[in-house]
Amino acid sequence: MESSSREKIKISGSPEIGLIMATWGFFIGFAAVSLYGPVAKNLKEILGLSGFLMGLLVAAPNLTGSLLRIPFAAWVDKVGGKIPLATLLILAVIGMGGLSTLLYFYYPHLEPWMYWLILFFGFLSGCGIATFSVGIAQTAYWFPESKQGLALGLYAGIGNLAPGLFGMILPFALEAIGLTWSYIAWFGFLLLGTVIYILFAKDAPYFQLVKAGYSHEEAAKLAKEYGQELIPTGSLIDSLKNSAKHIETWALVVLYFVSFGGFLALTGWFIVFWVQSYDMELRHAGLLMAFGFSLLASVIRIFGGWLSDKIGGELVSIIAFSLILVGAIVIIFSGNTSFGMSLTGEVLMGAGMGIANGAVFKLVPKYVPHATGGAAGWVGGLGAFGGFVVPPILGLFVQSQGVIGYSKGFIVYVVLAIFAIAISVWLWKRYGKDINKPIED
Predict the structure, then answer these.
(1) How far apart are CA 168 and CA 204, in angstroms?
(2) DSSP assigned state of 143
């Protein structure tokens, strides 16, 4: 009877294909974090931008990339991951297409009013960043709980490499083929990648069965025969409401705002920092950002999660945010004159943010065990909002103090790190005794 049932119900795809395609979709979309960082200096000079407007431009993709995470993650529970992720990628393709077209016809003779159009295309392109939460859910539905840790680790680890890689490659492309054709090539890559995702991505068995006409109960029963353990309950809205009642949820939002929001913000900003502070070639600035910050933070995130299993996420957070604090202070005192100090500060901040990212999400199921999905939505979505908020503030320091403002602006991260350390200490004193035990209501 089971084999007959399986013959009638054809489920396409596999957990491996599900993981590969979710990771692919996240990788090509997440690269938008580096959209404007490498060209900020060019656009600032051509358009006559203030420091604030330059910072806003660098941050633009992170606005949609953070706020759209929550509703699109909720959509996954209704229709599966393919349609939401493909929708975000299509919006990003439209943004990149519009930007490429504008540059093709007008660059380098851009007019000041075009800034707002470039900003709008940045918002659209940033939709690809929001694929993170969709891909997390898409991957989790394909894998049993015993294998989700490795699968999600691979998904987040590989996908998070995109901004660093693109931030490193783009400066070389700018020198080889020019700004306009570099973005046209990026648009072509994103378009091709989106087509590949749409053609080969598959939803988990439950969603395929529902689309075939089965009821929720029938689809859930049959999906379990195919190894799918996680079945959507349709209660994400309740999960969001319940998790919002926990003060611990908002504490974690603040911590992730500093760590992951900081990662998004500085991935774009550090290229501007190196070019403007040390008159560095763009390609060298891209390499420094990638290896000294973005790639480092992505890889060391795994270590942060592992260490949290050993000594607790609260203590790891205290250590990680202390690294961020020290790194920011070192950059401030470098005063745009000591390359070695600035590089040391960048590395310390990258390591601290990566370790903190791993620690914070380790704490989500501990503090909100009965509404983990909703808590993850708040933490991931609002926390990433830091990538949009911080760069314009850094730009204000440049606007008011000139070039020295590039180093002095890191006072923002001194304040944020101290605040995050205080919250981490509070959590440690209140809950740190039980490293992995969920906190009961």
Answers:
(1) 35
(2) S
